[in-house]
Amino acid sequence: MTILFPIIYSAALTYLVWKAFKVMSNGWGISGTEKKSFNNSNFNQKKYTIHPELLDKSGNITEEELLTVRFSNDNDSSLEEKGSTTD
What we know:
Shape: elongated
Number of helices: 2
Largest sheet: none
Distance between the termini: 71 Å
Structural class: mainly alpha
Helix content: 40-55%
Mean pLDDT: 75
Order of helices and strands: HH
Radius of gyration: 28 Å
């Protein structure tokens, strides 16, 4: 029993390492071809994201005034320019 355990352990470890490299090599091959086809495609990506909270019932951007929250450790320089102080 003591000699059988290291043999089974080594075989299992070798098998798992082989499977891991096989999966990683498949991933590397796919990512290389996807990047090439992605760069060559005519895919138009939006440069901004509109959050659903900003849309009204008809799908247009709302004109309502929005509530904003400023935290005390905010490093925004616009407060210093306005002469405001934070608590």
